[in-house]
Amino acid sequence: MKRSLIVVAAVVVFVVAARLLSQGGEPAHRVVTLDQGWTAPQAQAFHYMTQGTRAMPAAWLRALRLPNGTPIMSPSNLQRLGFQDVHARPASNNPYGWPIGIAVDTVGGVQVAGFTCAACHTGQFTYKGTTMRIEGGSTNADINAFTTQLRDAIVAIKNNGKVRGRFDKDAIAYGYPKARLQHDFDREAANPDLWLMYTAGIGGTSVIGGPGRVDALTGIANRLFAYDLHDPNNAIRGTAPTSFPPLWDIWHFDWVQYNGAVRVPMARNVGESLGVGVVTHVVDDSGQLNREPLRWQSSLRVHSLYWMEEQLSHLKPPVWPASVMGRVDPAQAARGRVLFTQYCMKCHGIAKIAGTNEWAVHVVRYTKIGTDPEEVLMFAGSRFDASKLGLSKSLPGALGIAKFVGATLAEAYNRAGITTPAKVAQYNGWGRTGVNTAPCGYKARPLIGIWATPPFLHNGSVPSIYDMLSQTRPAHPILGNSEYDPVKLGTVQQSTPETMTLDTTTLGNSNAGHWFTSDTSRPGRIGPALTDAQKYDIIAYLKVATYADYPTKTVKEGYPLPCDKNFDWANGKVTDLHINAK
What we know:
The chain is an alpha+beta fold and 582 residues long.
């Protein structure tokens, strides 16, 4: 982290005079970190603290190459994929100077690399030569492409003797024990199908995620039921990529995940960690079920996950950087607040639950909001063979994930000495009890700081707030351009080598729903068509909205979840969703 701080209008500015942001001699940018309540050490720790994920030994990752011979971890490749801080200086918790979100752990004297939360939940935009860091924001990184590169490199090493020779030489030079390399690599790469399962739902999707999106829920299910159970037949193709949600205020929400499926913050975090590479011992190398308690032991770091969750209670929404992107007219913002209160507060207002620190979030039925239903349908409708665990041969994925996460977390708590009810409640998050469900809708969150999180809708199919408020939207929006558009509150719609064009006619990518339109028969209509002046008034308010002026009320309890009562956990049936089970 850079340490010289110059505070200007609530903006902490780091001026990087000599360091280039990319290879090839591009001009250095001014890097701006917005004031969000975190100190530089807090942010650095969040960027690189391990959560127990172990993708592969760090020496292997350093040695993996693209087909053209370029190291996968080279700054040029990582920048092309949208990772942040690709020229980071080595530090005690980032020994190789890797980009934000790639953590290093030490296991049996060997350093091991894996994803951590910040890989997906740190945002970055540029505007006229200034780069803005958004802590807890939405990454533009193409995680799909990165994990696919890892898989393809592993397969190439396995199948090509010349490539294998170069890999062995490099991995040993980078510190991997020579005596262990052949055995360890052959063991990990023995079944290419299992490596495919490792990235299925991320790299192995039928609806490509691209920059800033992954099919996270399918990826978690595939990791657990295909990779961890050694059963490639359990893998399903991801069809519901979603953008990465911002993390500020999320600790208040009484339901988490886009579809409001999880109540306990730690359960969400454990599911995410399992999905991106926490090592489990459910089965042995031959695929046979291990005995308990070994079966549910894992590399999960619950103390780290608890620390990260605690930091979120200190994370503030980013303040509009007026010194970079222009001052907001107070009168225009005031008009926008009136319109926002009129049309948006019902779902997006803050609803404080009396006597708690929780906010009740609306989970709006997908048929009412009219947005792409694929994530809801996939989560509630997917089925997996869990007979190895003594469960159903056609277990609903939602129920299977809940059982897998619950057993893994219970064992992790036991091994970490977190055994009293009070301590468990503390680590679970704000004393909440473990509830999981499969609602048929999407969560509507408060929108303070939402300007810093394009693209919009749960699947990232709408490039700007202006488009969200309009009767028509771009049919082929561009994902991955990090240049910010402060007029429309979105990203510049211009193709670059790093971008991807989205086809919104594909199920999973639909940009429909949440309409402001004069057509009262259109599914997902929220309100009447807005004039351009009204749209820009709302945009002005969303730039500067704060807790002090945001529409807020107090409620006695949370809102009911749509279709919650219609999901039969015991039999895996959903009685009022149109679902095609796997």
